[in-house]
Write a structure and sequence with these properties.
The chain has 337 residues and is mainly β. It is built from 2 helices and 16 strands. A hairpin with a 2-residue loop joins β14 and β15.
């Protein structure tokens, strides 16, 4: 088992990242990790050498879905392919290992569920239909990441982030009619994607400041569909509530007790994504920018940690006709060995 110093450092590293569709009805592109650092922003801190950490995380996107009459109206106007998904749930199992003090390798495997997929269709001239496809679920694509810390001082860490997403996810899920879902509704993309970015963290006493940038370069995958490239950007401030040793929020913490510690955070999490391409043609109702304001809280004791964050969109500038997001809930647990 590890002492608390290693635990807090291990659980503030960027253990998991999510690389799938984004915006109106899709999971976001970047996650941080569990206990001492931010919840959604990627930390610049790496895990101590030899420390192994695992995490279970769920992200839920609740959408402001289109009504049946709205989808019928879109279909009647000849606007086919406008879709609505009530809820997206992304549950990920993650693991990270400190290869050296400055290099952490991590992996993430998601299980993605989309609830009540519906789409506008033109039934006859001047008549529209809201076609119900049903639910889609299955394992998503495996993501492998590396975080290399190139700068380290007593209170500041800066790291380079490199990753690859392999096309391991389900791409042949079928709807209620036994017809294969379009690529954007599948759990996996069928494409090889590559990620590159940077993260920085600065802590002083009970307060921590974190920021990261991450670019996701996609390629053509299943059904000749290429999900648009994505650029995510996140900032966070964390604060350890009074009643605990403030040094525990810094790198030199040596407390080995099982005292319960509480951290609150406030984050701004944004992503800009290009339109999807199908057979090389742009999909009009895709892409854009979404930014969340995300307050959250974490609790940690011994080698365990837990967290929850509730994100509210403050900027939604999507392209074409897409559903808005009502809120985003992120919650999870973590454990260090």
């Amino acid at each position: 088992m590890v002492n608390n110093m290693n635990f807090y450092k291990a659980l503030s590293v960027p253990l998991v990242f999510c690389s799938h569709f984004a915006l109106a009805d899709h999971p976001t592109v970047a996650f941080g990790l569990e206990s001492a650092g931010p919840i959604n922003t990627i930390s610049g801190t790496t895990a101590p050498e030899g420390v192994f950490a695992v995490g279970l995380r769920t992200e839920i996107l609740n959408n402001d879905r289109f009504t049946t009459s709205e989808l019928e109206a879109y279909g009647a106007a000849g606007l086919e392919g406008v879709h609505s998904v009530d809820e997206i749930r992304n549950t990920s199992l993650s693991a990270a290992f400190g290869v050296t003090e400055d290099l952490t390798l991590s992996a993430r495997l998601p299980y993605i569920e989309r609830k009540n997929i519906r789409e506008s269709e033109e039934h006859e001239q001047g008549e529209g239909e809201a076609h119900t496809h049903g639910d889609s679920s299955g394992f998503g694509d495996l993501l492998l990441m590396g975080s290399y810390r190139f700068f380290n001082s007593n209170d500041t860490d800066a790291s380079i982030l490199v990753g690859v997403k392999a096309p391991t996810g389900e791409t042949r899920e079928k709807d209620n009619d036994g017809v294969r879902f379009e690529a954007e509704f599948q759990p996996g993309t069928g494409s090889w994607d590559f990620l590159l970015g940077a993260a920085i963290s600065h802590t002083k006493g009970p307060v921590g400041y974190h920021a990261n940038l991450l670019y996701n370069k996609t390629s053509e995958g299943a059904q000749h569909t290429e999900v648009g490239d994505a650029f995510s950007y996140n900032v966070a401030m964390t604060y350890r509530l009074p009643g605990h040793d403030h040094a525990s929020h810094e790198h030199d913490h040596t407390d080995t007790s099982n005292e319960i510690k509480w951290d609150i955070s406030l984050e701004a999490n944004g992503e800009t994504r290009r339109e999807n391409r199908i057979y090389g043609h742009l999909e009009e109702n895709s892409g854009g920018t979404t930014v969340y304001l995300s307050p959250g809280i974490k609790v940690s004791a011994g080698n365990f940690g837990g967290f929850i964050s509730i994100g509210v969109p403050i900027i939604e500038n999507t392209k074409g006709i897409q559903t808005d997001v009502d809120n985003r809930i992120v919650a999870g647990l973590s454990f260090a060995l």
